[in-house]
Amino acid sequence: MVSPIYLIVITLGAAFLLGLLSERRTELAHFITVLALAAGGLVSFGWLWIMAAEGASAVEIYTAGTKPPFAINLRVGLPEAALLLLIYLTGLMSAIHMKDMLLRKGRRAMAVLLIAIMALAGIIMTRDIFNIFVFFELVAISTGGMVLLSDDPRALSAGIKYLIIAQVISILLLVGIIFTYQATGSLNIDFMKTPELALGGGGTLAFFLLLVPLLVELKPFPANGWALDIYQSAHPAFSAILSAATGSAALFAVDKIMDIGGASWGPVLTGVGLLSFVVSNILALVQKNDRRLLGYSSVAQTGLILAVVGQRELLGESYLFIAGGLLIGHAVAKAGLFYLSDLVKGRMLTNWADLRRNPLLVFAFATFIAMLSGLPPFPGFYAKWELVHALMASGKTGLVVLILFGAILEAGYLFRWFGYLMKRPQSNTPGTLPLRGVLVTMAAALAGWLAAYIWGELSGYDNLLSQTALLFALGFLLIDWFPAKLKNTIAIAGMLAFFWQSYTGYDPIQMIFGIIILVGGAVILLASYHERGQRIGFYPSALLMFAGLAMLIVAEQSFQFFAAWEVLTLGSYFLILRGKNAEPHALSYILFSLAGAFAIIAGFALAAQGQAGFKITALADVAADLAPWVFILLAIGFMTKTAVIGLHIWLPGAHAEAETDVSPMVSGILLKAGLFGIIVLLSNMGSPELYGVKLTYVMLWIGALTALMGNLMAAFQEDAKRLLAYSSIGQMGYAIFGLALMNHLGWLMALMFVINHYIYKSMLFLSVGGVAKRTGTKLMYKMGGLITLMPLSFFVVLIGIIAVSGVPPLSGFGGRWMFYNAILDSENRLPMIIIFISGPIAFLYLFRLIHAIFLGQLKDEHRKLKEPSFWIMVPQVIYVVLLLAFAVLPGMALQKVDTFLNGMFPEGGLNWDGLLITSDYGYWSPVWIMVVTGGIFAAVFMLLLAINRKAQKVKQFNIVYSAERPYRPETTHFAWNFFAPYRKAIWFLLLPIATRFWGGITEALHATAGFMRRFYTGDAQHYVFHLLGFVVGLYLILLGVQ
Amino acid sequence: MTKHMITFLLLLGIGAIFADLLTGFSADQNLNASAEFYATHTVSDTGAANIVTAIIVTFRGLDTLGEVTVLFLTAAIVALVLSGDMAGGFQVKPRRWPVGELLETGTRLLVPLIALFGAYVFINGHLTPGGGFQGGAILASAMLLMLLADPTRRFAHKTIARIESVSGLFYVFIGVLGLALAGGFLDNRILPLGDFGSLLSAGAIPLIYVLIGLKVGAEFSSIMTSLSESEDV
Amino acid sequence: MTLQNIAMSTGFILILIGLYGAMTHKNILRMIVGFTIAGTGTNLVLIAVGYLPGRAAPILNAAVPIETASATIVDPVPQALVLTAIVIGLGVTALMLAFAYKIHATKGTLDISKLTDLKW
């Protein structure tokens, strides 16, 4: 490999060479520029390969034939090579992306670009602090020049602001350098002593002045107004360089000089970095301009990485993996987003809806925000995992809380933006997307996936990108142009094959979940045959969710579990967002899910205490003082997914606004992920106590209250799908209650619930969704009398509500029976009473479902409706058969589970005697119940037929309003506000307290951001105040700390 | 008023830091290790009499390359910034005031002398105080004088740009030669060190300083002409 | 007070004066003048740090023979650094002047507080 000094030679030489060209030969000049950058990229790649694949050690490059510290030397090791590659590739892609602008401005602009890249490479390689200063000045000056390559006239003022700040920085830096030199007798980083943190004259103060200006180059809050202005007004391709390349180089410079400063300066970096991370993310919440938003996000991410640099002693060997993962994720994603922003005409976030025309760009955007949010399979995910583990293991909980808080804010505005992109109206005059820009963006996205693979290989865990399930899901991205029906067949076949492959390894509990996820998912997918066209994006999302679920149930290590958890969250988010009015609901879904996931990662990290490859079963061995906290964190995470009361506000919208075949997936299957988590948690950790309170007892209460409130709220819904969604909340409450009982029957009941809930909720969502598709509304008072037009749907709903309500003869009754047995086993009377009360409430809403939709008068506009399409009915019929079968023979599934549970709870099992099931309190004979209830039903039905024989059919007549049209016509409908009396009685229970609480938090954050950002007045002199205030403030704080 | 107050307070803080530095400062009594090395090894390693020059051109040659690049960059950006004004050709307005006999004649007399002096300064950079930057600046001052005497004068941009580029390329090339023929990038020992104290000594240092002088002169001229030409529009 | 301390203090004071000017004057040209003063102060500090009392400039000749050089010259490194710093400062100043010119040409003002179209 040629010496790395040639990076500087080639790039600088090319810049000088451009001066020899005539002004008009701009194409040639651009070609030379691209060639030089590509050559630089190649050299960097060569070195990276030598370092990474062949394991070579770092090379030293001496200049002037003299050894350091007497002459400047350069060094290229693994991190240097990687950063050089990043810088050159960013430069190359930006040069290609902004070709038009460069051609317009001529060869000088290209020379400036080349020198900027050369200087960044210099910062990376050099080991001399004054040399760093020189290269930084080159970067500063070229930044001043590059800012002007913009169509935005405001770039000029951004440029002068930047130069003013750069002047102040360079004054401080020079003073810092010369005094550090005086104190240490050298300018070479490797030969300088390490002054410990002790200000008050001498070398330490000098180091302070050396460090702080470099920190300011990282745009820390509050000294960063200038950077935001540049991001907002510069050409996005240059902003990409500023964010990805300059940011990385400056971070590396800080990392280098930390060799001089020593570990005692780490907390300074962490403090400054985290402040930036959190505050910038808050400020970004109210930002509507896309590029300024990206600026805030850049500043925030840089702050996070800086915080990690501050912890490098603690992180030890994994430091490079973590910092590198965060850095590469940030750099690639930010560059990609800036490139994308050039393809969007308007500067509002909502203007990005125009990108929707090109699915490739949507894919790229999704890739970028997943990278920034640290979601799998991208490097940031692995980095986040390791970082949180390392910090938790050393008791730095505060740092973890701040990091995760900032991360959830960032996810908030990023996913909101994705929602805009997918759901907001497009502009009327879509221009054509420039091919060059699209290609560069896609290259960035591909680079992101490549990095994801590399980090997976480096991680020491199974590479996520080599998991069959995940690859199968991602494979649908490649065949997304196939017709939907073909993809549907592939998906169903794939899921069944995967089940066939893996079912032998399942234990009975996994088997239940495995069947529901893979086979049950395939059954729901049958309904998807009704869709025509390509249905772009549906299959990758759905399969991502199923892949995550399938990986979840077989996970052995906490890492695998968490990765699967994030995968299924991401997939289901994309899936939910597909619904027509789903934008706000999908957002609140992903935010609650991510926050829950953060609780889970913190819980696992706390449990692992730095132990790599932590097994889930090892949760049982967590030290007694940590166990309750681990339990609480994990339980919060899992119960977010099952939407317990208080954390439930995301569910109704997300489930109700999803597409017809998506609702059953997310309700019938996805919710089970949370239950599975709780099962794993309880079966391994049992019931730890905190301050004398059994935590399962708390969970019991939560379950009971959730059941009550979910059912209550369901009763007052007007929207049929929302009703079902609230009902799910209540049902999950039952299941949690059963598990929290911690006895044999409670668990058996919960597992039976898992099966039952899958069947009847999928069935009801499909039938109600199918009806809603025909009628064009989900509001029940707008339907009515559909029994004659859709008898099959009516029958399905009837069976469904019998099953849900738990009356004989269907399997719901079996669940109830076990439930009451389980309760009798337990001593918790008060929550028990609540659970008893919520039972009848279920009748209230279930009754409405059949009554308002199918009975009563048929609406005029519905007279010509037909049964929902064939494919939507198919799974419903399967479910009816299943329900009946499961009712007669519950033993099929449960007996094995019952035996399995004996391992955990030897007491109180059931006796399975042929078709008769006996408990300590009584017996249950499903077949006899079926026969008896069937007989009674048939007798009453015949009787009614006989009585009703003389009934006459009459035509419906319109009731015309006598004088005026009511202001809200629905108020005159009998089905509207059906339970008004109850509402009057228990209004205080129905107050949307949780919604108001979370809404209040959101508003408070937005208000804070709206107020705080006025701090950036745009006046350069105020920016100088901020900068000097930052320096003086840091100085005073450090003095105070001593 | 608040602005003055804030400024005052902030600078008080900065002043406190400086005062802190000052009180903590203890002057060296002897040269530190680096300076000691330069004092004892400069002659044997580089053959230059001016130690500062040896440091600038050789030991810290990479800094100097960067420094030259700074000027190149500035010249390019200044031209870029002001290029909008020159887009429509150079519409030169006649000056309202004559510059005066004294200046014009003085210029004719002084320009060659100044140029000669500049060349002297950069060629002797390794022996006496001075060097490429100083010499280049002196060269450019001759240019400035010409501009003052005749503001409508136009220099050949192409020539200036060529001088800039060619001297820059040669500078980089000499650096690479050091890599190939001597101990490393920018090693001056690609040429014989010669007799200590004579003009043709110190290896490549005089050559590099000539290039730097030309380049700096050209760059300053380029900046000045850009500024001067835009002023007329 | 030694010569060195006086020079260094003067440098610091110049930096503060320059910054004061740059932070209180709204006219960009005046700000540039302020930064130039501060830059000069910085250079003075640099030189002062490298000064050793009673020693000669680091140029070897008959008066400063090679043999005794290490005992008779001042530290040459800061002198080399200051040259680089001066040139860089000059580059930035030229660039700022060009910006100022362009701003005046396009916006008709040199008042920095009026360039706040980018904010928040």
List the helices and strands and how they pair.
The complex is a heterotrimer of chains A (1042), B (233) and C (120).
Chain A: H1 5-18, H2 26-52, E1 59-62, E2 73-76, H3 78-97, H4 99-105, H5 107-125, H6 129-146, H7 155-184, H8 202-217, H9 225-233, H10 236-261, H11 266-284, H12 290-310, H13 312-315, H14 319-343, H15 359-372, H16 379-393, H17 397-423, H18 435-458, H19 468-478, H20 484-502, H21 508-527, H22 538-554, H23 558-577, H24 583-608, H25 627-641, H26 651-656, H27 662-685, E3 689-690, E4 693-694, H28 695-715, H29 720-740, H30 744-775, H31 791-805, H32 811-825, H33 829-854, H34 870-888, H35 891-902, E5 911-913, E6 916-918, E7 923-924, H36 926-947, H37 980-985, H38 987-990, H39 993-1012, H40 1020-1041
Antiparallel strand pairs in A: 1-2, 3-4, 5-6, 6-7
Helix pairs in contact in A: 1-2, 1-5, 2-3, 2-4, 2-5, 3-5, 3-10, 3-14, 3-18, 5-6, 5-10, 6-7, 6-10, 7-8, 7-9, 7-40, 8-10, 9-12, 10-12, 10-14, 11-12, 11-17, 11-39, 12-14, 14-15, 14-16, 14-18, 15-17, 15-18, 16-24, 17-24, 19-22, 20-21, 21-22, 21-27, 21-30, 21-34, 22-23, 22-27, 23-24, ...
Chain B: H1 2-24, H2 33-46, H3 51-59, H4 61-86, H5 101-123, H6 132-149, H7 157-181, H8 205-232
Chain C: H1 3-24, H2 28-50, H3 69-72, H4 76-107
Descriptive notes:
The complex is a heterotrimer of chains A (1042), B (233) and C (120). Chain A has 1042 residues and is mostly helical. Chain A has 40 helices and seven strands. Chain A is 70% helix and 2% strand. In chain A, helix 7 packs across helix 9 (225-233). Chain B has helices spanning 2-24, 33-46, 51-59, 61-86, 101-123, 132-149, 157-181, 205-232. In chain B, helix 2 (33-46) crosses helix 3 (51-59) and helix 4 (61-86) runs parallel beside helix 8 (205-232). Chain C is mainly alpha-helical. Chain C has helices at residues 3-24, 28-50, 69-72, 76-107. Chains in contact: A-B, A-C, B-C. Chains A and B meet through helix 1, helix 5, helix 6, helix 7 and helix 8 of A and helix 1, helix 2, helix 4 and helix 7 of B.
